[in-house]
Design brief:
With 197 residues, the chain is of the alpha+beta class.
Length: 197
């Protein structure tokens, strides 16, 4: 996951991993390996401070070279914990598009290949041209919106000036929503068991 429209290796945030809870470890594993193309690189199993135990499962995008963006990890919790609702937005009463995971696609060809991969698994997909970037969206088995996003142009000084102006304006001018939006319905006949289970 990189900053939008501006990429400089020296300025990468350099996070190690993002960790989220899941109640559906097997389906989550299949989604991130089959639908996202990530590789499972590490599982840590150990006790938790509250007296239970957990699996901490790490995935890496093999298309990212060493030193690039970090990993995504999932907690499979066992013990006296409340039920896990892994939907990052809906679980806290927000629309699903608010909290989501956006991964970097290198260009539009890469983005289209990733969209095709999702469609080949029968997943519902939304393709949106935001003007400065283009994104495809689906949902992981936890109900979290997942995005592949590619930059369509470099963000420049005008973009940065507009950003700071809008940030502190209590009544900013609203932009028109994207009109280049394509929705692809799910195809249950293509969905593997981990999607339907």
């Amino acid at each position: 996951m990189r900053g939008v429209g501006y990429r400089n290796e020296e300025d990468d945030v350099g996070y190690h991993h993002v960790a989220l809870a899941t109640a559906k470890l097997e389906a989550t594993h299949h989604f991130y390996t089959e639908a996202m193309g990530f590789e499972l690189v590490k599982t840590v199993v150990g006790p938790t401070p509250e007296g239970g135990w957990a699996k901490h499962v790490f995935y890496r995008n093999p298309d990212v070279h060493d030193g690039g963006p970090g990993m995504i990890a999932f907690w499979d919790l066992h013990g006296d914990y409340p039920p896990v609702d892994g939907a990052m937005s809906r679980s806290v009463g927000l629309p699903e598009w608010v909290n989501h995971l956006a991964f970097h696609a290198t260009d539009t060809d890469d983005l289209e290949a990733r969209r095709k991969r999702w469609l080949d698994l029968g997943l519902e997909v939304l393709d949106v041209n935001h003007g400065f970037c283009r994104s495809v969206y689906t949902h992981d088995p936890n109900g979290t919106m997942v995005e592949w996003c590619c930059d369509l142009r470099e963000l420049d000084d005008d973009d940065r000036a507009q950003a700071i102006e809008a940030l502190f304006d209590p009544t900013p001018e609203l932009e028109d929503p994207p009109t280049d939006v394509i929705g692809f319905a799910p195809d249950p006949s293509l969905q593997p068991d981990w999607v339907t289970g």
